[in-house]
Amino acid sequence: MSDADFEARVADLLAAGKTDDAAEVALRQLGPSVLGYLRAVVNDTDDADDAFARFAETLWSSLGGFRRECSVRTWTHRIAWQAARRVLQDPYRRRRIPLGSSSAANIAAEIRSTSSLEREATAPTRAARLRAELTPEEHTMVILRFDRGFSWSEVAEALAADGESVDEATLRKRFERLKKRLRELAVDEGLLP
Fold this sequence. Notes:
The chain has helices spanning 3-15, 19-42, 45-62, 72-89, 91-95, 103-114, 116-122, 126-132, 136-147, 152-159, 168-188. By secondary structure, the protein is mostly helical.
């Protein structure tokens, strides 16, 4: 379904008072893309899945109040960004320590980490190391602007937090500084001359 058809379908369902149907259409159409976005930004599969669950619940419960000040696609990514921020700012998640494992699991992990195949599979690529240098907000800017094709005004709308608007010109300037920093890091990593 094209973006225009999708937006029209959701608008028609909302106008007919079929909020649950509209939410289902929105989740089915945008859910896979939003999940991929959250996994990239949150950088932890379990936390991203938690953020996606929060996103889906918020979308489902608040779509009836959607004021159509932006596209459904932009609005859903705004909800996803807010869900990602809540997960990333959760005090438990910031200080959690993985549970210890058994001696057998520790030995198995040691053996896997010393094998050449495991090292190759787990060694971060140079591009992945560059992405790791990005803050979640910077990662969001890159994903929405280049991977998802959002306009700068849509990116600004998606990044708006708690009713605060994000100035599009400021966002562009921040992105210019980010590009300069990424270029320097890419040169350091040997990705660029």
